[in-house]
């Protein structure tokens, strides 16, 4: 199973994603902002995937900032983006790390499917 860093500023959504991914057998690391995400990413532990909200309130480019810095620290990282907004061409142009997307609200089954796709 994978080590997945979830970066989401809304506690309930972060917790729900954590529980779903833990039920799938993944090891989960949590962050609510860029600073706490960077602490995880700069550690010695290899992280397999980043699950990040595109619209983090404290950052100009939100989850894109997190993903870009994450890829610099851990180049093989896979990235699954999420947002309550519909996916647009402008959004996908900024994707890194394989750049897959799941729209909020998502069900546990949809999240499970997206995580599976991320690793295939």
Automatic annotation (TrEMBL):
Pfam families: Response_reg. This is Response regulator. Residues 3-119 form the Response regulatory domain. PROSITE patterns: RESPONSE_REGULATORY (PS50110). InterPro entries: CheY-like_superfamily, Sig_transdc_resp-reg_receiver. The keyword Phosphoprotein applies. The modification 4-aspartylphosphate is found at residue 53. Keywords: Phosphoprotein. GO terms for biological process: phosphorelay signal transduction system.
């Amino acid at each position: 199973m994978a080590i997945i860093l979830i970066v989401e500023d809304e506690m309930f959504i972060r917790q729900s994603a954590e529980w779903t991914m833990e039920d799938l057998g993944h090891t989960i690391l949590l962050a609510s902002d860029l600073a706490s995400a960077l602490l995880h990413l700069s550690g010695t532990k290899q992280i397999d995937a980043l699950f990040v909200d595109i619209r983090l309130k404290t950052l100009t480019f939100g989850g894109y900032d997190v993903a870009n810095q994450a890829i610099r620290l851990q180049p093989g990282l896979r990235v699954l983006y999420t947002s309550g907004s519909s996916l647009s061409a402008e959004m996908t142009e900024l994707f890194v790390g394989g750049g897959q997307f799941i729209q909020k609200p998502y069900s546990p089954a949809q999240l499970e499917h997206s995580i599976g796709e991320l690793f295939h």
